[in-house]
Amino acid sequence: MILLENLILNSESSIGTLVTFSQFLFVSLVSYPSNMKGTSLKSLYLAPRVPPSKWFLMVIMYFSTSLMNNLVWKFNISIPMHIVFRSGSTAITMLVGYMFGKRYSTRQIVSSITISLGILLVSLPDDLSFDHDMDYHYLIGIMILFAASVISAFMGIYNEFVFKQYGTSWEESLFYTHFLGLPFFLTVAPLLRKEWLILWNLPAFLKQLVNLGLNVATQFVCARGVNMLAEKTSALTVTIVLLVRKLISLMISFVWFGNEISFRSAVGIGIVGIGVVGYSTGGRRKKEKE
Q1: Which residues of 223-247 are buried (b: 16+ CB within 10 A; e: fewer)?
Q2: Cβ atoms of 106 and 259 closer than 8 Å
Q3: 3-state class of 13 per DSSP?
Q4: Cβ proximity of 237 and 229 under 8 Å
Q5: Closest CA to 123 of 154, 77, 166
Q6: C-alpha span between 253 and 239 (Å, rounded)
Q7: CA 150 from chain center: how many Å?
Q8: Region label for 101, one of left (φ > 0), alpha (ψ between -120 and 50) or beta (otherwise)
Q9: Where are the domains of the chain?
Q10: pTM above 0.90, yes or no
Q11: What is the pLDDT of residues 42-86, one digit of tens each?
């Protein structure tokens, strides 16, 4: 997140799509060897245990959420806002899980409502009149974030279903969700070219290129850890662990980059934090009782 914020702050325009493509390409290349059928030249082909039709839906969802989450930088969405809003995915994950037969404790339900209220406080613009074009621009960014959170919730539940049905390994999941997503970037090829030219023409091109390289490398470590966790736990547990990581990223954004925060947003962040703690402890108590 530090590297990403450096890329955003020092670029004349958003290069989020370029960052997303670079991450997909790097993860595909690095994770390919662990998915080969053998080590000889005759066995370099891939042999997935999960049918391609099952991966297709996962790839569509993962590509969409990745692209949307990096697209919002074009709509005046700050790093702190991005982190806090995505923390609301806990409540959305719970609603989606309920649709598929999962049940939650009363504390988890109350906590999810609390998280939603906190997200609402943080998401509201300082000027609620919406008289300026900038306000509507910002609103579009919020709508994109919300859509990405909904798709991400369905993706988490679907990923859990695939793991239970086929017993796939996290290495396979990591590789195919990125590798099969690469062709979809042809749909945004002109935008990729435009963003590369933006990066190329920056006075600090080499520095930003290093930031981009380090960003995709750390993204690989992050994606690897998430896939390892998803293989061993539920979608809910993955969401909670990611919330802790987002909270740390949020604190770094305020302290390291000096991002300002209004009193209302500070209250909203506090409410989100209370909701997250209640949500996670509520799930643990329910499991102990069962």
Answers
A1: bbebbeebbeebbbebbbebbeebb
A2: no
A3: coil
A4: yes
A5: 77
A6: 21
A7: 11
A8: left
A9: 2-289
A10: no
A11: 444 566 677 777 888 889 999 999 888 888 877 877 777 777 777
